[in-house]
Write a structure and sequence with these properties.
The chain is mainly beta. The protein contains five helices and 66 strands. The strands form 15 sheets. Strands 25, 26, 27, 28, 29, 30, 31, 32, 33 and 34 form a ten-stranded mixed sheet that branches. Strands 1-21-20-23-24-17 form a six-stranded mixed sheet, with no helix packed on it. A five-stranded antiparallel sheet has the order 3-2-4-5-6, with no helix packed on it. A hairpin with a 6-residue loop joins strand 44 (505-511) and strand 45 (518-527).
Amino acid sequence: MAGFLGATGTATGVVEWSETGGTIDSAATETTDDYVLGVEVINRETGTRSYYASREAIPRATLEPGTYDVVEILRDGGRLTERTTQFTVEGGTFEATATDEPSLRVLTDTATTAGHVAPGDTMTVWAGAVEQEYGMDRRPVENVEIRVALEDAKGNELETATGTTVGDGNVRLEFGLDGVSVGMHVVRVESDATSSTDTAYVFVGPYTSVVPHRTSMTTGVETTLGIYSELGGVPESNTDRTIVVEDPAGERLGRTQTFDDGIGMLSITPGLAGTYGISGAKSPVSGVRIESSELKALTPFFGRTEHDIDEPVTWAAHVVRDGVPVSNLDLVVTLRDLSTDEDAVVLSPTTNEFGQFTITFDAPSEETNYGIEIEADGAPVFLADSELVFVDSSTSSGGSGPISFDISVKDYTTGIGTDAPVTVQLLRDDEPISNETVTLSYSYRYDGVPFEYTTVKTDETGTATHTLTVPETAPDGEWISVVGSVELEDEGVQIRTHSLSIERYDIETDAGAISGGTGPVDVVATDRATGDPKSGIDVTAFGNRWNVDAETFDAGRTTTDANGEGRIELDIPDDATNTVEVRAVTPYGKMRTIGGWPVTSLTVDEPTLTPATPAPGETFTISYTNASETDVSAIAMCPARRNGTATIVPQDGSGEFSVPGDAEPGGWIYVGLVFVGANGETLLAQYPVDVAEVLTADFTVTPQEPGVGETVTLTDASTSSPDAAIATYEWELTGDGVTDETGPEITHEFAEAGEYEITLIVTDENGESDTVTKPIVVSYDDPPSVDVTGDGTPATDTTGDGLLDDVNGDGRANIVDVQALFQHCETAAVQDHAAAFNFSGTDPNEVTIADVQALYERVRRYGGDRS
């Protein structure tokens, strides 16, 4: 643990409760959001340490052979804990480290927004036991007696209970919290059946959350920040709580804040430029860090944009002061390599009359991330959440190797007592892998308390589906982790994960259109299992300025009525001249962004593209008509997120872009724009660019796996460019380069088993042509009668897959048949029926030593004897 903490920092103390203002002298406050801070993977033989964001991020396929410790560092309720498991990598294949005892898991179910519980309430604790496989939690273990203890922050036991896990590997226990003091508490599980232990944390007391903001406060200007507070899931009213504000110089001031309907409005005037921390005193507030600055920079998209390595990059932004563009401002833009913490690129642009600027530089030659820092006259310019991510496209797509193993769910959110279909797809080189057994493990949270384990088998499409019925006792507001694994003969163990949220009620929030200076937020709540309206659901909404100033301008609360409906009306201030956003608190969400409105006088017609539908690799221009009362200039980025190039597009000019060569014909890309008025108002927009179809030859085969003598239908599936239809279709069926058939659809019967190369050549009205070739494997519906050994006993198929694995015809497939195939491999009896001995799946027209080796692996896999 020391190694990881040495890389990330140390834990801080807890501020004691205070109901009065004044300077806070104790250590920094902690937050209560529990999550994995990171995972340290340690090679036990070499001592090499690697760090990852989560267990799921560990690149198991690329680790060197050896035994590894996996140390998860968790922050739970402000405390740092660790959990260690092990796995081994042998010969490049990820294998499990055997464990002789179950591992314990624990989860606190408090049924409140953020895992808090009120003094005197009842808390449900889930305890579980699991077996580990492949270094991950897998099978539930029943009949494990688990002792659960509730402890205070000093380790004193306050209450204990004992329960025994049932068939789904878990047990639920109730804890009464009468007499339990306000503060952080520990729930610890242990058992005589195992040396494993686990802990969870729960805060007894209020939950208080500061509304997060995407941009910064303005230095020297009074700012209002929204705060939400509840106790036991009920919004607090007529209640004072202490909020702690820490300025950039480290001075900490306690502020008393009054809450009504769960809403508090904190007024703060930042006197310094830099980072302010706003959190709670003893109540572990969900704190935020908000910048204060005089100058602010805005880009077409907040957040990270992705770019290929070794490619030129053009990036753009505009700078404002007091909401007004700053022209002729000399800037220093530093791109810092976040992997080395060194300056990678330093540029010196100057803003134009709209405060806009662009920078162009060469991307690095290796994958890394760049942070962007901007200064003007030595003072920092605030830039919201922007980061440049550089990836190697040649190695970043398609997963690991030829195997594609995916888990998907029909809906990402499921109700209690409802069915949730989980689908598995398994492919090798884009071809289905059938008849493989996939295990699925379900737990509450990743590597959490187990509740189900099952297996499914892939069909001929490489797909398998399991319908998970969410238990009626499932903890509402938690999430389910789905872990799938499959062991393939050549590629070893493959592991994939997925998740879905548990929400008993479907709570829809919609920020409607502004009318008369009021922004409505409509709420509709229904029971997911029955579809019936749900009354009594509390929703609180905060309206924030979004892309210029960090400020909450209004807030409101509603409770759904008998129809499951409610409405909040937020007053939009007259001086709101840019986009505003709405964040909401629901029983299932902490400050989720649910919508917003562009509040601006800028009016710009939809941009014009020339040509209107450019093809992949083609250049196009974008222009627009300004109908505003003020002059406008735009920063455009295309494509909007991936490999986007930025340029400044004046109202009387145009910008030029190219459609990426790998863009899907008939699909679309996006161009993002930030329109900036001379008065400082902005308008953010995103427009689709339809990508033209191009002449691309393609066809389908029905059936996909035909038998000898079966009618095969070959159907054209080509696409054409918009200005030229396909005129001719030429089919080559024998691989001799001679056209055998013409037309958009043909039929054919193959008289012999084997692999055939089918070629389609399409030519359009402009004389342009495209060609596609696909293999078709024709096999025997019923294997032929082949006397391999010459003793009058024909070979047989013991598996029903059309391959004659019982080579000597004695009714069993074993090592004797491997020897027989090796001995008679070159005979006419074998070679004339090669498709029936194509165990390697390579060339169905010739039997080689590879087929003998594949038959050996096949009989070995099934214990050396199959009948």
